Amino acid sequence: DAKTTQPPSMDCAEGRAANLPCNHSTISGNEYVYWYRQIHSQGPQYIIHGLKNNETNEMASLIITEDRKSSTLILPHATLRDTAVYYCIVRVGGGRDDKIIFGKGTRLHILP
Amino acid sequence: GAVVSQHPSWVICKSGTSVKIECRSLDFQATTMFWYRQFPKQSLMLMATSNEGSKATYEQGVEKDKFLINHASLTLSTLTVTSAHPEDSSFYICSASQGRTEAFFGQGTRLTVV
């Protein structure tokens, strides 16, 4: 079972920041938080990942709480092309126990 | 980001035949590959995890004799759906990862069994 919970859907106005929350209260110390998104009928696209520090790349920022029990993905200036299902995943990474389990994700609608 | 190529993008086959789907990591060596199935309006369901040179580890409820996974090299894994039936029609997606780095996904294969 997925170790994360996300709201099923969210709306965001085009040009505004989209903040997508994720709860992972049972995360272990060696598990990373990964974010992917899936646009209809395509494979998931990697966005960002982190362990305990906040991370930023050209696509998004990832804010992880100090207790690591939740995180927020921030798309700073949402466009219509950001409409997708966003998945938050916890993963050990590497080794025989490595798994990537998807939850139900958040369907993000960007409104013109 | 790294490129994972999945082939074919779509395939239609007759009931009872077998179909092979290839997953290649084009610019990195994938020590681990994951195979997923996705039904309409649902999330991705992990079918199996394979490490290069080892037998695949299947998730509970996934028939290993029906979904044959081979990960013979660090750049190629294959999924063969044997004796396909209409209920096997789905969107199959592979993912490749090198150790603790991020995993990258193929573009998916839409299988239709008629």
Would you write up a description of this structure?
The complex is a heterodimer of chains A (112) and B (114). Chain A is mainly β and 112 residues long. Chain A contains no helices and 9 strands. Chain A has strands at 9-13, 18-23, 32-38, 45-50, 55-56, 61-64, 70-75, 84-91, 106-111. Chain A has a 5-stranded mixed sheet, with no helix packed on it. In chain A, strands 2-7-6-5 form a 4-stranded antiparallel sheet, with no helix packed on it. In chain A, strand 5 and strand 6 (61-64) form a beta hairpin. Chain A is globular and about 45 Å long. In chain A, 33% of the residues are buried. Chain B is 0% helix and 52% strand. Chain B contains no helices and 11 strands. Chain B is mainly beta and 114 residues long. Chain B starts with a strand and ends with a strand. Chain B has strands spanning 4-7, 10-13, 19-25, 32-38, 45-51, 57-58, 67-73, 76-81, 90-97, 104-105, 109-113. In chain B, 35% of the residues are buried. In chain B, a hairpin with a 6-residue loop joins strand 9 and strand 10 (104-105). The chains are: A mainly beta (112), B mainly beta (114). Chains A and B meet through strand 3 and strand 4 of A and strand 4, strand 5, strand 9 and strand 10 of B.
